[in-house]
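Late entry, written up from scratch paper. The run itself happened at the end of the previous shift, but nothing got recorded in the book at the time, so transcribing now.
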Amino acid sequence: MTLQTIIFLFFAGTLGGALNAVAGGGSFIAFPALLFTGVAPIPANATNTVALWVGVTASGGAFRKHLDISRRVMVPLAVTSVIGGIAGAYLLLHTPAQTFLRVLPWLMLGATLLFVFGARLGKSGSGIADNISTSALVFASVFELIVSVYGGYFGGGVGILNLAMLAVIGMTDIHAMNALKVVLGGIINGVAVITFIAKGAVVWREGTVMIIGAILGGYLGARYSLKMPQAWIRAFVIVVGIGMTAYFFWKAYM
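Output as recorded:
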């Protein structure tokens, strides 16, 4: 690799890691950057997943004080994340992308609307209450299964999808939501990472550079987002969601 390529991939990883820590969508920076440097699509997707998974994990250190969730809620969400992550990684390695590209913009549109209006549909609160209704927990688990399949397959915008689900079941504290989003995203992509590494789909030379950048961006993005007003973070998430929805509609139907 040339020095210019190293610098380019490092900054792409840093920006992608920071974006994932705050809202999601870091793959829309990191994945095209890998393609631009000559990495083939499927290895680029696998490498992007590995790099940004490390970055998301790094951001968890900044959010750890905001993670407060009961085992009754965490266990089903974690289990569905593992199952969906495995299924999504398998689909990436064995199926074409066209079907997902057709469905994805509608999924992103629904997620953005759910994030905007979700607090009005669920009970308000800073976190998820221990007495959350069974129906709400079932909804969250099914939603998370769908999100995790997509996350294992590609993952761009998976943070927005998870934030939408958390809004619907009653979370309003954006920092607490981001903390749980990081945990769920870490599980989803962690399972996919194991699958991609086992299949030899990761390009480590480019990936190592991007991993270093993603660690820096993930931690700093999470740390500085905690200092911003929550209204700003929510507005940023909505802007990212609208932008990704428009991009996917253009990609799928234009």
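The first helix runs from residue 3 to 22.
(Scratch paper discarded after transcription.)
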